Amino acid sequence: MQELLKRVENGEDEVQEQLKRLEKGKVVPDLIKELKRRKLVTKEKVIWYSLKKGPEFVVKRKTLATDVTREHLKSGDWKDLEFKDYNYEAQGQPIAIGYSQPLLEVREAIQNIFLEMGFSEMPTNMFVESSFWNFDALFQPQQHPARDSHDTFFLKAPATTTQLPDDYLEKVKQVHQSGGYGSKGYGYDWKRDEAEKNLLRTHTTAVSARMLYKLAQEEHFAPNS
């Protein structure tokens, strides 16, 4: 029969004391290393949040208005509404760009066909035009509602032009006033001052009128080789 005897009067658990000190926040680097080596402690990441009432804290959530409707104006409710602030840094809706456009592809194909046949394109980069080429040469009567269908913007400076072919201008004048070439004309007093007014070109047909007159001055016309 074996007999157990105490070797010390009061036994102390040193490891337990070390763990208690660690729990109280008394961190000793060497102690932590030893406890981790013996797998008595493990390292964990703990995130704490501190919440408090903000300036916009409410017990009941309120929906902010974004638009003023007709009903708001009629009833007068708009006076008591709280509107949502504009976010000027918000991204707009992405624009759909960079895609192939079938009509542009067809136009380019037809354009290449005519260019390969020797034709050349009319210059359309002159955006200021006279009323003569924009309207009169195309036989739109002066002071007639037919011209009102265009968004016409007249120039202040230079307001008029004097670079008009007198011979052709006289022919256009006669057709407007009394007709010709199978036409009876419009029967009104055509005014050169109206034809000399400068404007922002309203259509590219005015360029066609200029080019046809220019080509008519040549003895022979043929596509570019």
Summarize the structure.
With 225 residues, this protein is mostly helical. The protein has 8 helices and 2 strands, in the order ααααβαααβα. The termini are far apart.
Description:
Residues 86-216 form the Phenylalanyl-tRNA synthetase domain. InterPro entries: aa-tRNA-synth_II/BPL/LPL (IPR045864), Phenylalanyl-tRNA_Synthase (IPR002319). The protein has 225 residues and is mainly α. It folds into two domains: 15-83, no CATH class; 128-216, no CATH class. 32% of the residues lie in helices and 3% in strands. The chain is built from eight helices and two strands; from the N terminus they run H-H-H-H-E-H-H-H-E-H. The protein has helices at residues 14-23, 29-37, 70-75, 102-116, 131-134, 166-178, 192-195, 205-216; strands spanning 128-130, 198-200. The radius of gyration is 45 Å and the shape is elongated.
Q: Identify the overall geometry.
A: elongated
Order of helices and strands: HHHHEHHHEH
The class by helix and strand makeup works out as: mainly alpha
Strand content: under 5%
Weakly predicted, low-confidence segments: none
Q: How many individual β-strands?
A: 2
Q: What radius of gyration results from the CA coordinates?
A: 45 Å
- How many helix segments? 8
* Distance separating the two termini: 129 Å
Number of domains: 2
Q: What's the story with the biggest beta sheet?
A: 2 strands, antiparallel
